[in-house]
Amino acid sequence: MLPDEPLTDGTVTLRPWHPDEAGWYAEQAADPEILRFTSEPAGLTAAAVRAAIEEMLATRAHAGLVVTDAATGALLGNAGLAPGAEPGTGAVSYWVAPAARGRGVATRAVRLLVAYAAELGLRRLTLWTRADNTGSRRVAEAAGFRLEGVEPGGETIHGADRDVARYALER
């Protein structure tokens, strides 16, 4: 599922993570908003991220991609596409570093993932976000996802049940 070539729209580029970027990932994942709204574990270490990147690069089972500025190469965030439980399906995930928020980075990244998923022949994509994460919900909707419902206590994040909004995009 990992793409052979970078995905780009000319403004942002998605490419596989390099193991030497693990420190940046761990640093950004410690951001209070990322910890609040995602399932990134608290206390994530560069060593753990490096191991995960190396496994992903070896297995290519899912697309864990760094979001970069297409012009400068600056690291902006994380985007992922994983196989779904059923054939022809996939799950999308994303977060953006604090310095890159509010610039449309996540929406562009998710649109690139949606286009890549279509190339792979995936007919249904899903994503979830905390119900109170209005920014992420706007990203999902701007990228063509439709709300399927809000599930009270739908995900356990950092030991607490959280309400989640579940989205899907079908082709």
Task: Provide a descriptive summary of the structure in words.
By secondary structure, the protein is an alpha+beta fold. It has a domain at 7-123: Aminopeptidase. It is built from 5 helices and 8 strands, in the order ββαααβββαβαββ. It has helices spanning 22-29, 32-37, 46-59, 105-119, 134-142; strands spanning 7-8, 12-16, 63-69, 75-83, 89-96, 124-130, 146-157, 160-170. An 8-stranded mixed β-sheet has the order 1-2-3-4-5-6-8-7, sandwiched between helices. α4 links the parallel β5 (89-96) and β6 (124-130). α1 (22-29) packs across α3. The longest helix is centred in the middle third of the chain and has 15 residues, at 105-119. The chain is globular. The two termini are 18 Å apart. The mean pLDDT is 96.
